[in-house]
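anyone seen this seq b4? input:
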Amino acid sequence: MRRRLLSLVSLLCAGALLSGCATGVDGEAGAIDAITTIPSLADVEVSASPKDLTGEISVDLGADEPEPVTTDPTRTLPVTVKDSQGTRVAVKSADRVLALDQYGTLSQIVYELGLGDTLVGRDVSTQFTQAKDLPLVTHNGHELNGEAILDLSPDLIITDTSLGPWDVIEQVRDAGVPVVVVDSKRNLDNIAALIAQVASPLGVPEAGKALAKRTADEVAAVRTVVDQKAPSAVQDKLRTIFLYVRGQSGVYYMFGEDSGADALISATGAYDVSAEIGWKGMKPLNDEGIVAAQPDTIIMMTKGLESAGGVDGLLERYPSLANTPAGKNRRFLTMPDSQILSFGPRSADVINALAVAMYAPESLQ
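predicted toks r here
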């Protein structure tokens, strides 16, 4: 029986919506070319009037090659851990590992802990170069396939509640495979905790501490640059909202306080309007919220905007959005679904890419 409630994002990606998550549909109307060569914000000249900038931009970090924090981590196994659901899990071996979640964050962490050679399969969101040839164990988007998982004979599965159906997890547990469930919440404040939750069952807690420190240092460094480059006065900051859209399924949400998107917006030096308008969590988009928000910039997942028919399709569906500064200036910033809210080792790169698109778009041309 399922032991915890799925996050709303997970629910939106379940059932009939699975085919619309992360993978999207190639050739959607309104798709724009993604920019993959992204300079450091520290090296570019920012606009003196970012509120006056126009045009949509799609950035993509690309299928990079992760850098392990160590190439030979010291491992201590067997180990017994208590996972995020309070379940005590005995891990005797971790030589054949599956690390599965909605954003590909967990497999990225495993690789950067220096244990990439233990990965035997991947989820659809795991796109980094070294893992792309691993067999998929998710079908139809983010749907776990029990047969595909068991065929790989894993001796450890690390996952969260962002994937389903949960019956598959129970199936592999019944087959004797240890399953460690980590926290499915993603934000800038719990990256270190998430890394520790992955490192512990792998028997590499010290490598986990090193990776957490490196990630925190990188995030702190880019935020220092953002503080120097972004407008400091509240009235000059870009009023920004995050929209989660699956147009083919009629899903149009605005993410607010405590959704993770609010922390991302603030990290880029923009003004997250959700607190001002009392928009808690993740709620269906409506005209009242749009009018109250009056965004200068709108951040979205790339496939989400494409599924709505691009900027034109979204503005046609929500005429009130067309009357906001962001709508009039077509200021939509998108990033691949597997990157933008992943909140893992690439967090500093995500913040940098969005900040460059916000304040120095000419450097991306």
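Confidence is low (pLDDT under 50) at residues 1-28. The CA atoms of residues 46 and 360 lie 5 Å apart. kinda curious what u guys think
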